[in-house]
Amino acid sequence: DKSGHKHFMAKEMAEQPAILKAALGFYSGLDSDTLELPEGIDFARTDRLIMVACGTAYYACQVAKYWFEKYAGLPVELDIASEYRYRDPVLGRDNMALFVSQSGETADTLAALRHVRPHVAQVVSVVNVLTSSIARESDIALPIHAGPEIGVASTKAFTAQLLVLAVLALEAGRARGFLSAEDYARLVEDLRSLPGFMAQALDREGEIERLTKMLSQARDVLFLGRGTMYPMAHEGALKLKEISYIHAEAYAAGELKHGPIALIDSDFPVIVFAPFDGLYDKTVSNMQEVMARQGEVLLISDPAGLKAAGEVPHSLQMPPVPELIAPIVYAVPAQLIAYHTALHRGTDVDQPRNLAKSVTVE
Ligand code: M6R
């Protein structure tokens, strides 16, 4: 049932504020100032976190790596599940392994879980399906509470995964005595503001629909970001490839001059995720390098960031959001850009060619 929406993907994007609100309720303590995880997750004893996932779930982990380092001082190792098993990872008895999977049935992720299980202190998973193999074979499975996701392109599961990973990172920071009480309280408050900001981001849909007319004519699209916006660039590129069949790539903004800038000409749209934060100036100077070569730039930023950038070919205004939740809120334009570009091109957004919702072969 698409509840009046044209596609499951549209319905699932629209559900995000409500889902995140409910998930926040699930992971809240008795008073609203604290978060709470199920019993037994032992971050105090963990000396290293190993995260493994595929596709969109991998990009959620890539964002979470910044969070675990910044808010919990916890060393993180991250890999794509299909690669993880084919190296010889050095595991320690005080390591925690964390697997993220919407379906909980992704063959490579499950195989990686079985591979590390005997060697680590704890196996934790973040899943949408609690009865799944990955959930059952973990010591602790944390639900994302996104409800069934039908669209092959993951949307609400991605932002709900990010929310649960943010809760984990803040609780790790607290358990490890890394975050001060004031910082913890402020970050929990930031997390609580998420559903409202998601609704504001979804309100930009009309404008995104107009902007994507230009993208739908492109042969290639480049996404750029720095910090947590770098994984968002990857997520934007993956969504666009999946459902519009336009070749899209993501680069860390600073890598541009190490090769890909050679591709830039006036036919090459470049989408830049750059909220007005501590990394803004650096990213915008990379964006100016693209503009100097007539690249068709679309800058996605907040009012302060758009003002500071001056004239840009295309821009999309986002609300000013706290740094912690920015990657979750900026996921919305990444999703809507892919969705509307695909609609302009007339592709099947819910059931793109060659893809399955759950990848159970290695
Ligand atoms: O069920 P999982 O989260 O383990 O699936 C992982 C990937 O197959 C999945 O995220 C895929 O990349 C999506 N189609 C992306 O939109």
Outline type: globular
Mean pLDDT: 96
Termini separation: 31 Å
Instruction: List the uncertain runs.
Output: none
Distinct helical segment count: 15
GO molecular function, one term: carbohydrate derivative binding
Keywords: Aminotransferase, Cytoplasm, Glutamine amidotransferase, Repeat, Transferase
Protein name: Glutamine--fructose-6-phosphate aminotransferase [isomerizing]
EC number: 2.6.1.16
How would you portray this structure in words?
- The protein is of the alpha/beta class and 362 residues long.
- Helices cover 44% and strands 15% of the residues.
- It contains 15 helices and ten strands.
- The chain has helices spanning 8-14, 16-26, 55-72, 81-84, 107-116, 133-136, 156-175, 181-192, 194-202, 205-215, 229-244, 280-291, 303-309, 326-329, 331-345; strands spanning 48-53, 76-80, 95-101, 122-127, 140-143, 220-225, 247-252, 269-273, 296-301, 314-317.
- The strands form two sheets. The chain has a five-stranded parallel sheet, with helices on both faces. It has a five-stranded parallel sheet with strand order 7-6-8-9-10, with helices on both faces.
- Strand 6, helix 11 (229-244) and strand 7 form a beta-alpha-beta unit.
- It is globular and about 55 Å long.
- The mean pLDDT is 96.
- 5-amino-5-deoxy-1-O-phosphono-D-mannitol (M6R) binds at residues 54-57, 101-103, 106, 109, 152-154, 238, 242, 358-359.
- This is Glutamine--fructose-6-phosphate aminotransferase [isomerizing].
- One of its GO terms (molecular function) is glutamine-fructose-6-phosphate transaminase (isomerizing) activity.
